[in-house]
Amino acid sequence: MSTLKIAVQKSGRLSEKSLQLLEECGIKISNGERKLKAVAQNFPIEILFLRDDDIPQYVEQGVADIGILGENEVWEKDKEISIIQQLGFAGCRMSLAIPKDEVYTDLNYFEGKRIATSYPKILIDFFARNSINVFIEEISGSVEIATSIGLADAVFDIVSTGSTLLMNGLKEVATVTKSEAVLISNPNLTPENQAILDKLLFRMQSVREGKQNKYILLNAPNAAIERICSLLPGMKSPTILPLVNKDWSSLHSVIQEDDYWEIIEQLKNLGAEGILIIPIEKMIR
Ligand code: ATP
Ligand code: MG
């Protein structure tokens, strides 16, 4: 039987969330001591633990079929792979920063400047699009100290809160792009592996929809049921159950996480009582 190989980051900012995502999809992985490889017990998938920089290459070559990593690495490595899903975690921006006492005008500030980065390709493309000439100092880590040690005039790096920049006497002056974790795939999967991937994608979708929706139960006076139903369309339509008190009913439905505070206000105004909002673990339409 065929097994789908997924590459995830061995240790770093993406590791925990990547494994959590697989676990939420019901995939059980026993890998206490983080070996290089692990096989799921109840799903035809094998997990390869790698450095995130290497994942695009391994997926291109088919050593791994799919992988989870930051879009920033996907763009930088520029391999023949497909992004198949945004995953909504490890969000960050890729920004240019300069010493905090410098006066920044606009992008032309960078003309002729030396910029240190671990993402030369993304940076070269960006300045080429803006017709600005810069010198790039490629380094593989600790980019934020590059200006203070005299390696460069500015830095280009990943930023989430900006505190690392601040601590190193830098200020963020321009955002080049935003990035988050994505699921990538080799573009030529075998039909068997494509079928396993489709199963996995279906599960991911159920988890995502579950997170984006809430189950709602409430008691409503019968006279208000019609108006309440119009606020709670549910997956098909709400379920209405009679209460012992003949003038009241219990109503069950599903609402979107984003609008439930708004809707609850309106439900209360219509006379709803005993409103319960319950998380949904998985949702299949
Ligand atoms: P590896 O040893 O696997 O190469 P790394 O040091 O390159 O690890 P991490 O720092 O663990 O990588 O970051 C992995 C990814 O997490 C980044 O490529 C980026 O997509 C995302 N990320 C989110 N926020 C941040 C942040 N504040 N700093 C760095 N990366 C971040
Ligand atoms: Mg890396």
From TrEMBL:
Residues 211-282 form the Histidine biosynthesis HisG C-terminal domain. Residues 51-205 form the ATP phosphoribosyltransferase catalytic domain. It is found in: Cytoplasm. It comes from the Bacteria. Pathway: Amino-acid biosynthesis; L-histidine biosynthesis; L-histidine from 5-phospho-alpha-D-ribose 1-diphosphate: step 1/9. This is ATP phosphoribosyltransferase. Its main location: cytoplasm. GO terms for biological process: L-histidine biosynthetic process. The keyword Repressor does not apply. Signal peptide: none annotated. GO terms for molecular function: ATP binding; ATP phosphoribosyltransferase activity; magnesium ion binding. It catalyses: 1-(5-phospho-beta-D-ribosyl)-ATP + diphosphate = 5-phospho-alpha-D-ribose 1-diphosphate + ATP. It comes from Flavobacterium aquatile LMG 4008 = ATCC 11947. The keyword Oxidoreductase does not apply. Belongs to the ATP phosphoribosyltransferase family. Long subfamily. SUPFAM superfamilies: GlnB-like (SSF54913), Periplasmic binding protein-like II (SSF53850). Feedback inhibited by histidine.
